[in-house]
Amino acid sequence: MPRLTGLAAGTISQTTGELVARGYVVEARETGKRSGRPRTYLTIAGEGPLVLGAVISTLNTLLITFVDLNGAICSESELPFSGPRSIAELAERVAETIAEAIDASGFPKGRIEHVGIGVPALVDSVDGVVHFMATFEDTPYPFAAVVGDRIGLPVTIEKGTTYKARAEHWHGAAQGHDTFTLINVGLSLDSAAYSDGLPRVGTHGFGPELAHVQTGDIENGEPCYCGSRGCATTYASIYGMVLRGFGAQVSRLDPRNEAEVEALFIKLLDRACEGDSDACAVFDTAGAHLGQVLASYIKIADPGMILIAVPDMRFATVIKKAFSAALNSGILPTILKMTEIKFTRQEKNWHSLGTASLALEKS
C-alpha cells in the first residue's frame, strides 16, 4: 500500500482506522497460515453509511435514490411536490420531500452520510448558491444551506450536466479519463468539464456554459431563455430543434415537459432519417452550430476528449456532414487530430448515478 499510494505506513494506518471507525470499511484478518505477521484486508462496508441523491425535475417531482458506498442503488422513488412560487419555496418543498422519503425508506437517518441534489440552474456548487434559474427571479439564493438546515444533513448542489459528467466518469463512457468535457444535448445544450479526476470550475464555482456561446446573429438570431439572442442552445438543443422542426404546431409546447419534447424530437429524427428535406435542414443547422461552438472551445481549453451525450445515436449520423464541416473550418487540423470526440447515448438512470456519485465524493 505505501508503494501504491506514496504515503507512509503510519499515515495509511491512521486513515484506514478513521474509515473503520466511521463504518466506511471493515477489516478482515488473514486466516491462512504463513510466516510473518497476518495481513489485514479492507473491504467497503455494504451495511455501512448511505448517501442520498435527489434530482429536481422541471415538472415538480423529485427523483430520490439511496446508494451504498459500493455504488449500489438500495432504493429509488419519484415523489411529486406542490408547485413553488419562489426559489425559497422550492428549497422548502425539496427539503420536505427529502425528509418524507427518508422517513418512508426504513433507513435510519443517522446512516445517511451526505445528500447530493441536482438543480436545473446555474449554481455555485462550492458555496451551494443558486445564481440563476429560468423560472424564478429571486436569486442568488443559498439553496444548499437552507435545505441542509431543514433536513439536518450535509447537502451539496450541482447543475445537471456536472453530475452527469460524474456519472460518466464513475460508471460510463469516461471511465479511465480524468480529463474530458461533456456536452449534453437535452432540453437545453449543457456542458461540464473534468480535469485531473475532478469537475473543473472557475473562481465562482461555475463550469463552462457553452450553451450560451453565441454562434448565431446576436441582433437578429433566435431568442434564448437567458435573455440574449443567437446562443448555441437555441439551435442545437432538442427543444430548439423541435421548435424549428414543427413551427406553429408546437406553439403551446411546455418547455419543461422533457418527455413530450423528446418524443417530438424522435419524430423529427425519424423524418430526417427518411430523407425529409425540412427535417434534414433543422439537423444541418444544429450540427453547424454545435461544430462551431466546439471548435472555439477546443482552441481555448484543449480538453483532450469531448463526450457528446444524445437521446438517440442517429442524431450523430444526421448532423455529421454539417458538424464536421464546422469543426474543420473552425480549427487547425493539428489541434483537431489531438482531440477525441465521441458520441454516447444518454442512459436513463444517469440522474440517479450522477447525484449519488456527487454525494459519494462529498462524503
UniProtKB/TrEMBL annotation:
Coiled coil: none annotated. It holds the Pfam family ROK. It comes from the Bacteria. Belongs to the ROK (NagC/XylR) family. PANTHER family: BIFUNCTIONAL UDP-N-ACETYLGLUCOSAMINE 2-EPIMERASE_N-ACETYLMANNOSAMINE KINASE, ROK (REPRESSOR, ORF, KINASE) FAMILY. This is Sugar kinase.
